[in-house]
Amino acid sequence: MRAVVISEYGVLPEIREVAEPAVADGSVVLKVEATGLCRSDWHGWMGHDSDIVLPHVPGHELAGTIAAVGAGVSGWAVGDRVTTPFICACGACEQCLEGNQQVCPNQLQPGFNYWGSFAEYVAVPYAAVNLVRLPDDMDFATAAGLGCRFATSFRAVHQVGQVVAGERVAVFGCGGVGLSAVMIATALGAEVIAIDTNPEALHLAREYGAAHTIHASADTVAQIHDLGGAHVTIDALGSNDVVQQALQALRPRGRHVQIGLLPQGVQLDVGRLIGQELTWLGSHGMPAHAYPEMLALVATGNLNPQHLITRTIPLEQTPAALAALTNGTPAGVTIITP
């Protein structure tokens, strides 16, 4: 099969012919119909993830059709249209048995722990707990974006942040995760403030429901407080500076949800956390069993993840698109069709 192969961190990947993944017991192999280009893939390419072993194939948000079914997998057949969370949980540990597959200590992640979906085929381990059947009327490009950015934002906004109608939500960073959060919080009835340095991203945020947009600057916190302060802040980027601004922008007893990765760590103003009774919440993906609520809202038109897609590219353009993320994340979501 053809795949995007990283041989050296930070060096442009190549399209190569490599062996197709074997189907193991309890797993399936998918023919990749669509896969998303995410900033997490860039972090992996730059060497920020210790799980990656070179040579490596990135890609972790995907949708496709089942090409092979391993022994012990029931209820799934070749040709089924599916997606999967980027966290493939084991299904047997204490956290999984409690329904918390997104923090499974035995999790495997395509594109990080093993070769991912920037290829014509990809394996999905622990298929029984990680496959999500797609509605017949959902196209693969839309479904690919659900596995990481949109599902991650849905859980962060709705299930972890517990945003409700009438609250003011400030979303820092309007890439794929941030724009998803804007759309989801708006659908829940929140008054959304979108913050970014990219005018095009802010334009999309307004299209997806943001009531206010702020060009990020030293005055960002003051501008948010001029609007009444935020009940909930979301760091969809991953930045120490953003974390500090997000905490300062909160109203008393406000909630901060951290989605963006912080590879360099972060320092918190614990005194402010205590004195204002603020809550710091981490959110990491969403398990397969939680998808039905999100899919139902997509089916009714309350959520429209397909609108987030701004570019579709073939596999051949993927290495250059991945490298271009060094200069910033383009507005919207890029989908790759292998």
UniProtKB/TrEMBL annotation:
Q: Which InterPro entries match?
A: ADH-like_C, ADH-like_N, ADH_Zn_CS, ER, GroES-like_sf, NAD(P)-bd_dom_sf, Zn_alcohol_dh
| Cofactor(s) for this UniProt protein | Zn(2+)
- The name this protein goes by in its record: Alcohol dehydrogenase
In terms of PROSITE patterns, this protein maps to: ADH_ZINC (PS00059)
What SMART domains does the record point to? PKS_ER
UniProt family annotation = Belongs to the zinc-containing alcohol dehydrogenase family.
**SUPFAM superfamilies for the chain:** GroES-like, NAD(P)-binding Rossmann-fold domains
Highest taxon of source: Bacteria
Enoyl reductase (ER) domain spans which residues? Answer: 10-336
Q: Which UniProt keywords apply?
A: Metal-binding, Oxidoreductase, Zinc
